Amino acid sequence: MGTKVFVFGIDALTPSLVRQWAAEGHLSNFARLIAEGCFGKMRSTGEFSSPQAWPSFMTGVNPGKHGIFSFLQRIPGTYRFHHSTSQDIKAETIFSILSRHNRTVAALNFPCTYPAQPVNGIVVAGWLTPSLQADGATYPASIADQLQNCFGHYPFHADTKRHIIARHNQRALTNLIDALETKIKVGQYLYDQQSWDLFALAVVETDAVQHYFWPYCDPRHPLYEQVDRSWCENPVLVLYQQVDAALGKFMEKIDDQTILVVMSDHGGGILNQGRAYMRSFLQELGLLMVKRSTLTGSLIGSVRSRTRRFTEQIGHRWLPKGMKSSLLSNRLTRRWIENYYAKSFISQNDWSRTKAYSFYWETQPWVNLAGREPDGIVQPGEEYEQIRDYIIRMLSQAKDPATGQRAVERVFRREELYHGPYLENFPDIAVWWNRNIPLSGLVVVDDSGKVIKAKKEMDMAGLYGGHSPEGVVSLWGPGINSGQTLEGARIEDLAPTILYLLGHPVPDDMDGMPLLRAMTEDATQRPVEYEEASSQKPQTTEEVYSEEDEVAVKQRLRDLGYI
């Protein structure tokens, strides 16, 4: 069995697209990977989202154990949030485990790794890192200086959304390709610096290109026949071909003692847009009560909210950096930014009458539970379950008014998807929306016979692609079965698989299992060994993001539809 592992993580890489385009001759290196290695689908986490899935890849546990639900984490005991960081991952990562045992590791670009945590090697933090100059952008800090000197810049996040809105599609695609190419070059540069036991590189541009250009590659999408192809026939395929070229370079670069693991955190698909209706849906059901009691007040509030959002976006994108810094150093400006979010999504609620609600980032429903929420009114036990049952039933019956199709595929109680000590930090209900259609609305008849029509309350302009629950997994190299389809893999299986490949015991708290079925009989003669899980946690600091960083990071999340 090989003594080293190279991981190529490709955000939202979609199994069906890879197989189709490899078979058609568009992705020659993926075709080689499929023919010579073990390739298959891999089940993502409960809600197949990046902030849940990447930490599960790194820790081998489900989100209920590592603690991250969203890119914006709710602060327990409040209605407020903070941005998810590496400090919120409550389970030990494979990079930390191997470092404790003096194995050399490199982790580049993985989401939820900012600020970079100390390892026996190097870390370049993920796409919500404010800049290469930010404290914690890399570990050690000297790596940031190396990258600055060698490459001039480092594109944690490609400047894309504003070009999409302006219909400058070619510029948007070019920026994604440039960001991808820079990350690949950086990966090659750092890989060549020494021999690594585990070298792991992630790219996220595949996710972005699917969010913006999914109708170009999916005949099921209602816009498939309408998109402008004069500038590019299929931008998603173009970016996949760039990834394929990078894959070929890595396949040639690694030696015959290294196992290549190619994986994605989830797949892509049609963006349903259902979550844009959730807050209105709960309000129309009489579960979410707002303080605005008149039509005039509602209209004024709506205009005020849209004006605040427009002003913030324009300021972030077009004001010189010096002017932004000056504005953000002002106490009144900072208070305005804080109030913008609070007034728009929290303080407008009448908590004394609200039984269920949703936030604006990940809009899964929460019950306003007494003893957990600051102003909770629903009693634990029977009343809590009655509220959950009612929401689940109404969502399950809801339909898209344009097509008559069911709006959701399935609705879950949170404990049906997750388990662990951090379950209480997750919404009470999880919704899998119908991924076959982009919703035109959300309609249901309530128990009184009233027709409920929810309104769209999130701006998702320019976004057409969403996520699907199955990503890609492939192993290639010595001791790996050739031409085999890998069945039944879960993203939690990859951490224990990597540890097994490196001859290291698997911590006993991991939910995943080593993918021994991907390996040859000779390679699996050694039994899986287990060890007691470490209680080691990430280092913590009081502040992670500055005021200016907060604005920039929120804009990145907004660009991809997270808020």
Description of the structure:
The chain contains 17 helices and 21 strands. It has 563 residues and is an alpha/beta fold. The chain has 3 domains: 4-253 and 477-559, Alkaline Phosphatase, subunit A, CATH 3.40.720; 274-290 and 349-454, no CATH class; 294-339. A hairpin with a 6-residue loop joins strand 3 and strand 4 (81-83). The longest helix has 24 residues, at 295-318. The two termini are 45 Å apart.
Supply database-style keywords.
globular, nine-stranded mixed sheet, 3 domains, alpha/beta, single chain, 21 strands, two-stranded antiparallel ribbon, 563 residues, Alkaline Phosphatase, subunit A
**Alpha-beta classification:** alpha/beta
Q: What gap, in angstroms, lies between the N and C termini? A: 45 Å
Helix run count: 17
Mean pLDDT: 90
The beta-strand count equals 21
Helical proportion? 25-40%
Query: How would you characterize the largest beta sheet?
Result: 9 strands, mixed
Radius of gyration, CA atoms, in whole angstroms? 23 Å
Please state roughly what percent of the residues sit in beta strands, choosing from under 5%, 5-15%, 15-25%, 25-35%, 35-45% or over 45%. 15-25%
Q: What is the CATH class of the largest domain? A: Alpha Beta
Q: What's the architecture of the largest domain in CATH terms?
A: 3-Layer(aba) Sandwich
Low-confidence stretches: none
Adjacency order of strands in the biggest sheet: 7-6-5-8-1-9-18-2-19
CATH topology term of the largest domain? Alkaline Phosphatase, subunit A
Instruction: Give the full name of the CATH homologous superfamily of the largest domain.
Output: Alkaline Phosphatase, subunit A
Structurally, how many domains make up the residues? Answer: 3
The coarse overall form would be: globular
